[in-house]
Amino acid sequence: xxxxxxxxxxxxxxxxxxxxxxxxxxxxxxxxxxxxxxxxxxxxxxxxxxxxxxxxxxxxxxxxxxxxxxxxxxxxxxxxxxxxxxxxxxxxxxxxxxxxxxxxxxxxxxxxxxxxxxxxxxxxxxxxxxxxxxxxxxxxxxxxxxxxxxxxxxxxxxxxxxxxxxxxxxxxxxxxxxxxxxxxxxxxxxxxxxxxxxxxxxxxxxxxxxxxxxxxxxxxxxxxxxxxxxxxxxxxxxxxxxxxxxxxxxxxxxxxxxxxxxxxxxxxxxxxxxxxxxxxxxxxxxxxxxxxxxxxxxxxxxxxxxxxxxxxxxxxxxx
Length: 319
What we know:
Blueprint: E1 3-7, E2 10-14, E3 26-36, H1 38-44, E4 57-64, E5 75-78, E6 81-82, H2 88-91, E7 102-103, E8 116-120, E9 124-126, H3 133-136, H4 139-151, E10 159-163, H5 167-176, E11 182-186, H6 190-198, E12 202-204, E13 214-219, H7 224-233, E14 234-242, H8 254-259, E15 263-266, H9 272-281, E16 290-295, H10 299-306, E17 313-317
């Protein structure tokens, strides 16, 4: 089959990858759309020593499911963490932090930048008919955005700042504005600002970010400079939510965090069902994030486009 292969930080397009065989309790999924995200770009840059087929934001159809043939033909998205269900973390209900987990297209499991991908049936969620393939591609990052609301409570009195208005930052903004909080988003690029304005989300210039002014700061820039700004902007006893995965080391002023009693929260994957519900209702509309589309056989150019500063979502279409 056709696939994108990552090895030693080098991407290549291959036509000789065997079609995977579903193991027990797995399904073979024909991929129709896949999105390139910041984590995919960081894998190429050496964020994690992954070898194989990357890609974890996708939608497709189950073509073979030996254990559940009634699901064949179903249009699905996939939760990306595959747990063992037997380790202490799994038994304690922390399956996303399974000690033996694999992660689709990120850790010890081939991903979706290919014609076909094998995924455990338990990880595959049916896509509602009213959600288009283009919208369904955004299920995983929208779920990651919604994880913030599972971790902290927000209401109208909260002053909230999002640093970074890229692929993930836009979805965080669209989901947080629904809480009624006093939301501002720092966006550097014109296209990012235009998209925020279309969704009636307030934009703030970096120079206008006041010191110690925000109850909650969400760092989604992917840049250590974004964390530095978050430290400046957070008020005493405020909360900084980290959505960025940094390849570089961070310089953290620990004494200020201790003295001001700042809470730091790491935030990763989130709930798929609420994400699909928001997409189905139209309360979150991600289609404006799509900057470009490429066929799978032109994925190397797609990655180059996605890596350009200010680019939002680049979609791979799999015939």
